């Protein structure tokens, strides 16, 4: 290296140090500008694990990814090309904040398959995934300090959204039939006695993420009635509803309660999460505020993607595709349940000795929820699992309480059966060692 090279390097280093110093100084000044809301926005534990789970060789039972393997990509490409050639001027332009009328009509047909009959496209707001429908609901209804009731456990993305709006998230216990109505009522009364303002019940009644549990038919109306009596809106999140592979279909809470339930649906699990399209079916008297709030964030959802999805669904046997998808998820779920049964035979893990390992048997959706003996924390186990070549999401991510520390979520949706079996084989010794310790 010549002395000129050394000089150059020194100059570069000095410039880099200078930039770093300036950035540190700006960061210090700007820290005071953050809203309280921004301090509440956390990096999701699930996202952390996603970053790890793409490492080559790992079996990821972490992310709830839909299986896209059977999508006819040629038809998607052809549709996208046709949309641009034939409707380019519309597709590449701004649209209305409510979403295109054609997509809203299609959404009503999709919801009808699930038992929401006679919904009007005039009551639908197309959103950037159902995640953004939740965000809009929180924005429209929640002041800091208001209460949002959630199932315990619940979807981590919704927790992050509600917490960003500085609401008090109150988890309510579920059993194998979903949210427990008496506990919901008792919790509401206790919170009211404290003078709290309770705005929403956020529920995933079918194939709850993370537990896979479905709210029993007999409970559904009772839960809406309790909320109505206490003037609480139900925010029903149903991205997995059409992916039932076992048991009897159940109608969404929204079906018979058009004035008391905001219903969120999504194209993410039935088609593609990459198009970022979902929707809210909103009670008529709330609609205007809802879509104005949506417009204030995104102006309008992607016109291009709305046109592609509408045209694609019109050209495609989506009902047949959903039937195929259900079969794929059924097979994967079966592989996971069988692998768990083999890895943790009941006789080897006697519940009477405090060693019982339980898991849910979902009738649809993407997830199995595993319960280890009380006292075992699944968070540290994650590191051991990664060393063993498998990833899961620790239960604590799915609740603001400490009720799920000894649980873990396993997603079967995005993994081939053989890899699922391999993943559980890798996980088994980690769990066995923790139970036997
Ligand atoms: N709700 C639940 C229960 C989910 O599991 C997810 C995604 N994992 C979402 C909403 C977000 O879905 P979208 O892609 O439609 O925003």
TrEMBL record:
GO MF term (any one): transaminase activity
Family annotation (CDD domains): AAT_like (cd00609)
UniProt keywords, alphabetically: Aminotransferase, Pyridoxal phosphate, Transferase
SUPFAM superfamilies the UniProt entry points to: PLP-dependent transferases
Cofactor: pyridoxal 5'-phosphate
Domain named Aminotransferase class I/classII large: residues: 72-427
Residue stretches spanning the membrane: none
Keyword Transport attributed: no
Top-rank taxon: Bacteria
Protein name (Swiss-Prot/TrEMBL): PLP-dependent aminotransferase family protein
Native species: Sinomonas cellulolyticus
């Amino acid at each position: 290296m010549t002395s000129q090279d050394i000089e150059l390097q020194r100059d570069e280093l000095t410039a880099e140090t200078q930039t770093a110093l300036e950035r540190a100084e700006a960061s210090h000044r700007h820290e005071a500008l953050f809203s309280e809301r921004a301090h509440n926005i956390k990096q999701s534990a699930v996202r952390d694990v996603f970053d790890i789970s793409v490492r080559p060789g790992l079996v990821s039972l972490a992310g709830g990814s839909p299986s896209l393997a059977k999508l006819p990509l040629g038809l998607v490409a052809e549709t996208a090309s046709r949309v641009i050639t034939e409707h380019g001027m519309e597709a590449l332009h701004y649209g209305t904040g409510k979403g295109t009328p054609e997509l809203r009509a299609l959404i009503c047909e999709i919801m009808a398959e699930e038992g929401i009959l006679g919904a009007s496209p005039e009551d639908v707001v197309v959103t950037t995934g159902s995640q953004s429908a939740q965000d809009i609901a929180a924005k429209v209804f929640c002041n800091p300090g208001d209460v949002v009731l959630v199932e315990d456990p619940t979807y981590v993305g919704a927790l992050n959204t509600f917490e960003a709006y500085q609401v008090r998230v109150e988890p309510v216990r579920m059993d194998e039939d979903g949210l427990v109505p008496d506990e919901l009522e008792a919790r509401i009364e206790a919170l009211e006695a404290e003078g709290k303002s309770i705005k929403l019940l956020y529920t995933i009644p079918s194939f709850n993420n993370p537990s896979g549990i479905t709210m029993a038919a007999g409970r559904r109306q009772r839960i809406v009635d309790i909320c109505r009596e206490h003037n609480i809106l139900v925010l029903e999140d149903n991205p997995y509803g059409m992916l039932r592979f076992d048991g009897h279909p159940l109608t969404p809470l929204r079906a018979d309660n058009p004035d008391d339930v905001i219903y969120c649906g999504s194209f993410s699990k039935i088609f593609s999460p990459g198009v970022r399209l979902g929707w809210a079916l909103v009670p008529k008297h709330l609609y205007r505020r809802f879509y104005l709030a949506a417009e204030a964030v995104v102006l309008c959802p992607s016109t291009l993607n709305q046109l592609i999805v509408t045209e694609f669904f019109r050209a495609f046997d989506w009902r047949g595709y959903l039937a195929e998808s259900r079969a794929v998820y059924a097979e994967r779920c079966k592989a996971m349940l069988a692998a768990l049964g083999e890895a943790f035979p009941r006789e080897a893990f006697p519940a009477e000795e405090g060693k019982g390992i339980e898991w849910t048997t979902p009738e649809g959706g993407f997830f199995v929820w595993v319960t280890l003996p009380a006292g075992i924390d699944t968070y540290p186990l994650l590191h051991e699992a990664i060393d063993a070549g498998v990833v899961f999401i620790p239960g604590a991510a799915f609740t603001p309480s400490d009720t799920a520390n000894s649980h873990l979520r396993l997603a079967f949706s995005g993994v081939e059966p053989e890899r699922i079996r391999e993943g559980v084989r890798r996980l088994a010794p980690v769990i066995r060692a923790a139970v036997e310790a």
